[in-house]
Amino acid sequence: MDRKVELHPAFVWDCDECGRENFVRAVVAEMSEEEEAEAKEYFGYEPWEDGEFLRSPKTVQCEFCGAEFDTLDPDLLDEDEEEEE
Ligand SMILES: [Zn+2]
Prior knowledge:
This protein is an alpha+beta fold. It has helices spanning 33-43, 74-77, and strands at residues 10-14, 21-25, 27-28, 54-55, 59-61, 68-70.
């Protein structure tokens, strides 16, 4: 196979209107150096590690019926995992 495509991280969600499955690309999070340092610490990356943080889009639109939805932040879903000091 000599044709290649690049794969992008994405989220999958189900439309509440028509029930169909939709895919949406992850968004590269834009943050200041300070925020990036905090995010790296939070996720356990070393400060010298390079890369981009991806986040879910704030809103999505169903590609089949056009319904729009706000998204739940996946970070908020594991809030009950408290870290012990
Ligand atoms: Zn739909």
